[in-house]
Specification:
This protein is α/β, with parallel strands linked by helices. The protein contains 4 helices and 7 strands.
Length: 138
């Protein structure tokens, strides 16, 4: 209750490639108050594919879909090129929070919440710490 995990927040996922598929398959997200209700992509091989959260939808339809479904959170697993442009459009559609895995930081006005996730930075820290530990053993 204290951390707010008992409040379920509906989210869309944009980018259903490898990382997106991993998030779609993570049933543990609901324990933290996040339910992915739809996924979008540009890849014709992915569009229409069934997931636990329904079919992967065409990213071309996102703006109307977001407006109709009033979802406040979006998980972005897109390449950095389109991430900023799409995120800006989503803000205009009413999105209030981003869980951003794109390789670019997003920032908006204070009323938009952004959690920029840097997987490569986390990996660099891990490998540095391993190297540091191994060096201290020698």
């Amino acid at each position: 209750n204290f951390l707010g995990f008992t409040n379920m927040h509906k989210a869309f996922l944009f980018g259903a490639g490898s990382l997106g598929q991993a998030l779609l398959g993570d049933s543990g997200l609901t324990h933290f108050g996040l339910e992915i209700v739809a996924a979008f992509d540009v890849n014709p091989d992915l569009i229409g594919k069934k997931t636990a959260h329904g079919q992967i939808l065409d990213i071309a339809d996102i703006y109307d879909y977001v407006k109709k479904h009033n979802v406040e959170i979006v998980a972005l697993t897109l390449p950095k090129g389109p991430a900023k442009r799409i995120a800006q459009k989503l803000v205009e559609c009413g999105v209030k929070a981003f869980w951003n895995f794109a390789h670019t930081d997003l920032s908006f006005s204070d009323d938009i919440i952004v959690e920029n996730v840097h997987l490569s930075e986390s990996l660099m820290k891990l490998t540095y710490r391993i190297s540091e530990k191994n060096d201290s053993k020698e």
